[in-house]
Amino acid sequence: xxxxxxxxxxxxxxxxxxxxxxxxxxxxxxxxxxxxxxxxxxxxxxxxxxxxxxxxxxxxxxxxxxxxxxxxxxxxxxxxxxxxxxxxxxxxxxxxxxxxxxxxxxxxxxxxxxxxxxxxxxxxxxxxxxxxxxxxxxxxxxxxxxxxxxxxxxxxxxxxxxxxxxxxxxxxxxxxxxxxxxxxxxxxxxxxxxxxxxxxxxxxxxxxxxxxxxxxxxxxxxxxxxxxxxxxxxxxxxxxxxxxxxxxxxxxxxxxxxxxxxxxxxxxxxxxxxxxxxxxxxxxxxxxxxxxxxxxxxxxxxxxxxxxxxxxxxxxxxxxxxxxxxxxxxxxxxxxxxxxxxxxxxxxxxxxxxxxxxxxxxxxxxxxxxxxxxxxxxxxxxxxxxxxxxxxxxxxxxxxxxxxxxxxxxxxxxxxxxxxxxxxxxxxxxxxxxxxxxxxxxxxxxxxxxxxxxxxxxxxxxxxxxxxxxxxxxxxxxxxxxxxxxxxxxxxxxxxxxxxxxxxxxxxxxxxxxxxxxxxxxxxxxx
Length: 527
Known about the structure:
Layout: H1 4-15, H2 22-36, H3 56-68, E1 74-78, H4 86-101, E2 105-109, H5 115-118, E3 124-128, E4 131-136, H6 141-147, H7 158-170, H8 177-199, H9 206-215, H10 240-256, H11 259-279, H12 287-306, H13 312-327, H14 333-363, H15 368-394, H16 400-416, H17 455-469, H18 482-488, H19 496-521
Parallel strand pairs: 1-2
Antiparallel strand pairs: 3-4
Helix pairs in contact: 1-2, 3-4, 10-14, 11-12, 11-14, 12-15, 12-16, 13-15, 14-15, 14-19, 15-19
């Protein structure tokens, strides 16, 4: 959700060295906006499927601007006019012509260029089955095909005629051998003269053109005072902390312009907390109250993890941008992972506080102020772990549909092994690592012979126990403490703070796995 100017400015901060001041980077962006013909759309949001933004042609020019922000010597483009109407395609190629006139070497692939686009090109290269059929200026095409014995009719697009004729020759027995031989002869003898006659410019090789570009003051990554032709070019233009700062600012800008994502998640958490607070209002300390607390924790934990699924499309939406930028070494993958975690964390704090404020005191959880603070922290840690898990999956799954299916299934498995349905001692050893320390209550007389006796008998036993212990016991009393219940269910191996740190550690582990996934999937690397 960035504007055209912001997109180019962030690209400049990534691709231009730190030695350039912020004012020079901004000046470079302003000059590039004028060069691309995007001044009228500079403050327009680029947009996506759900937000209207710039046109297709303007979007393509922004894409080109991102690649040339560092003023490269050579620019390769793969079908930059595909999917555009004739006017937009012409404007894109005209922008590329300006870039070439500024000193860069622009090489692009294009299918069936219009007559107007053909007039903007300095050289064209026709290929058939990987072999060069023609290389030279477009204006020399009529002369070339005249020598071939196939003159181009007047008024016909030379490019279309050449493509049709080459396709016809490719289907014959003789094939394109005659054209290939003529092209070789043309390169050796006639091309320099034809180029000079057609364009009135001297014929230069690619090497000579690059030398002229450097002499003309093109920005060369890693160059500076004291550098030589043999000096090593830095892999990244900036150190990792600069990349982290830029990525974080860009992430917060995108988040600020899509508040509906956070608001929808906040709404789901608030509604769930309100429902839980009204259903489990002021639970007592009876065995029934203990079991109801247990149900409250089960639903609360499910809410924390399932509402984390909104993190899934975040990376899926910008995945192609990430792969493109990292393929050009705009920033390190580790910087992106750290930035993603930083941008994700503040909304989790808001969600945790909102859930705790609504539910903690209403349900009647114990611990006072200290208990409330710990409850906020454990809810935050749960959101952090759930968000990390979903972020990791977003780097693995190919699309959101499959992703949501995998998230729902995986989180269901976590819930199944959380201790709400199976006591810890009954969980197999190879699944115990998925089990958090959560209490499972029981009724006071359940599982004993007294549980089958009449209520009057049970009351008599309670009164006798109460007299002996000098405690007033009745049908709503519980003689087991929370620690007793945890010990009975084998949930006393870790203290509450150890469980908190373990949950936080899971969140970090999932983000490390996300980083490894990005490393393995980033196959398009520059060496």
